[in-house]
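Q: Here's a chain of 228 amino acids. Please give me its 3D structure as C-alpha cells.
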Amino acid sequence: MADELILIVEDDADIQELLEYNLIRAGCRVECADTGEQGLTAAREYEPDLMVLDLMLPGLSGSEVCRRLKSDPATADLPIIILTAKGEEEDIVAGFEAGADDYVTKPFSPRVFMARVEVALRRRRGSAAQEDGVLSVFDIVVHPGRHEARVGEQIIDLTHSEFGILHFLASRPGWVFTRSQIVRAVHGDDYPVTGRSVDVQVAALRKKLGTAGQHIETVRGVGYKLGD
C-alpha cells in the first residue's frame, strides 16, 4: 500500500489515531476529518485513494456523505469503507444502499481492517489498469464499446438490461451491490424496476453464461457480486 492517500472521517480521536497509526505503518499517507462536512470538503480537495467513514458523525451523517460522494461523477469511483458501531443487518444494508464499498463494525481487529483496506485498494488499482473499458473477470470478457460479452471465445446474446448488469458487476469484481444500486447503474434513477425484477434478470444472465454464471454470487440480505 505504498504512498496511497487514505482519508479518515471519524470523530472519535482514539479510533482516528489507531487507524492513522496502522495506515502510516503500512506506507500510506493519511488525512483526517472530524465531521461529515469536513469529510466532503477533504474528499474533493485531496482526491484520496480511499475513504474510511464513520456513520455517526457530528452534523452531516456518514450515510449522507457517502450518498453525496457516490452521486458526484468526480468522486463516484472513490472506494468508501464504512466503519461504525451500527452492526444490525438493516444498518449494513443501508450502508451499501448509500454506496459504500465495504462495511466494518466496531469493535474491530486492526489486522482485519488493514486487510479490507488492501483489498479495496487492489480493486481500485485493477479498475484503473483496465484498457479501453474492456473488462475481464475469470473467463468472462465484457466489451462496452461493442456491447459484447464473451465467455472464452463464445459471444453471449444478452438483452440490454442483462448486459448492463454484467458490465456493472464486472467493473468492480468482488464488490457487493444492492439491487437498488444495480437498477440505478443500469437504468438510472426513478426507473420502475423492482428488486424482484433484478433477481429474474440475474437468473437469466446466469443461465446464458453457462458454467461461468456461477461466478455471479448472491449475498444474502444485500444483493450480488461477481466473484473476488
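Q: Can you summarize the key feature?
A: The chain has eight helices and twelve strands.
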